[in-house]
Amino acid sequence: AQSVTQLGSHVSVSEGALVLLRCNYSSSVPPYLFWYVQYPNQGLQLLLKYTSAATLVKGINGFEAEFKKSETSFHLTKPSAHMSDAAEYFCAVYMNAGGGADGLTFGKGTHLIIQP
Amino acid sequence: DTGVSQNPRHKITKRGQNVTFRCDPISEHNRLYWYRQTLGQGPEFLTYFQNEAQLEKSRLLSDRFSAERPKGSFSTLEIQRTEQGDSAMYLCASSLAGDTGELFFGEGSRLTVL
Predict the structure, then answer these.
(1) pLDDT confidence tier of residue B2, bands split at 50, 70 and 90
(2) If B56 and its partner were Cys, which of A15, A84, A101, B4 is the partner (CB 3.0–4.6 Å)?
(3) Are the C-beta atoms of B19 and B78 separated by less than 8 Å?
(4) How far apart are the first and last CA of chain A?
């Protein structure tokens, strides 16, 4: 079965500092991996996705993530945090690229807090 | 460009009442998913449709939950005899079959059961 684990339910960084949100996956086959962001009282918005092409993936709002098969990780980073980045971030895995029944399996989320 | 639309956005009901949520997916998307999200948790898969066929429903939380997509366009999620534990955000998402798994989410319908 596929799953993702997000390390740290809350991460706090200063404005302008590096953002690092951790995600490890478990999958018996090469996965497709996603990061979504959720602002208060809103739905989820795709930040970026890994679909077996380049291992370093660039997304919106200056975020990027690197797929590391040896570490089964897909950590999300941003060089310089902005106040507007404060939100809930979810890592997700999609195993059956040909049309899996379950869609995406999500982690529990990491709440990103930006200190002024 | 219209995204995924969900109605109502908020629903407050008394325990034991029935509630129904509606989802209108992106028009060209043939897959539609329902998720539930409780406070502090990630979205939890409930069920999904490809066109009008419900291909997975074993994850629906109980037999009080049911979903339909009668014409392969909009979908409804009904919860009968609501309980306080049903209070959550219900998210709808759509996608194209055979795509890389990217889902497009609506803003959700928040249910509060008193």
Answers:
(1) confident
(2) A101
(3) yes
(4) 41
Residues A62-78: pLDDT tens digits? 999 999 989 999 999 99
The pLDDT of residue A97 is 42
**B100, B107, B110: best mutation site toward chain A, by most A Cβ within 10 Å?**
B100
Whole-angstrom distance, CA of residue A21 vs CA of residue A90: 9
Indicate if the pLDDT at residue A96 is higher than 60.
no
Cβ neighbours of B31 in A, within 8 Å: 103
Least Cα distance to A9 among B94, B40, B14, B4 occurs for B40
Record the tokens describing residue A111, joined without a space. 């709440």
* DSSP conformational letter for A83: G
Question: Taking residues A38-56, what's their average pLDDT?
Answer: 88
Decide if A107 touches B, using CB distance below 8 A: yes
List the single residue in B with minimal CA-CA distance to A102. Answer: B45
What ranges make up the beta strands (E) of B1-114?
5-7, 10-13, 19-24, 31-37, 44-50, 53-56, 65-68, 75-79, 88-95, 104-105, 109-113
Chain A contact present for B102, CB below 8 A:
yes
CB within 8 Å: A102 and B45: yes
The nearest CA of chain B is from the CA of A78 a distance in Å of 22
Determine the average pLDDT of the residues in A37-41: 88
List, for residues B15-56, the tens digit of each pLDDT value. 999 999 999 999 989 999 999 999 888 998 899 898 988 887
